[in-house]
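Dear Dr. H.,

I hope your travels went smoothly. While you were away I took the liberty of generating a structure for the chain from your last submission, since the lab meeting agenda had it listed for discussion. I wanted you to have the full record in hand beforehand rather than looking at slides cold. The sequence, exactly as received, is reproduced here:
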Amino acid sequence: MMKKLILGVLLLNLLAACSSNPPKEETMEPATTSAAEAPAADTQAAADAQAAADAQAAADAQAAADAQAALMEKNSVYFPFDVDAVQAADRETIMNHAEYLASHPDVKVRVEGNADERGSSEYNLGLGQRRAKNTKRALVLGGAQDAQIETVSYGEEKPRCSEHNEACWAQNRRADINYSAQ
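The corresponding predicted structure, in token form, is as follows:
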């Protein structure tokens, strides 16, 4: 019986030694900030947000200025000899100006129709006016308001090139979209 008792105690100790205790979970205390640190962090976050907003506004303003400068570079629409219809090659130019005018309703332009030196003065004035009106019509179809656009014809009076050859005449058969004329 003593053997059984010693064997039982030994077995009980062995079982006790083999049992494992679950590991304790470590808990983190929430970080505490002092009352003085909280407003400083909020102020810094607000300053960072304002700086980001200012940088974005500056980037947007620069992009708008670049877009307007690119728009002003291509402000003429060209026509074949004795034609007043806007050509497919110039539709992108017209659409760019129309979109700009549509997004800036306070901006006004003058479309100035021109012709080359061939033909009578009266005929060229009429042709220049038709070119200006057709350019205006294309701008309005693109989204600009009718009231934003004035048309005028200079006929052959304001040539861009004064030589007497086809290359020069092609430069004079145009309608100019003039923003600074208003």
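Two observations you may find useful: The chain has a mean pLDDT of 83. The first strand starts at residue 76 and ends at 78.

With kind regards,
E. W.
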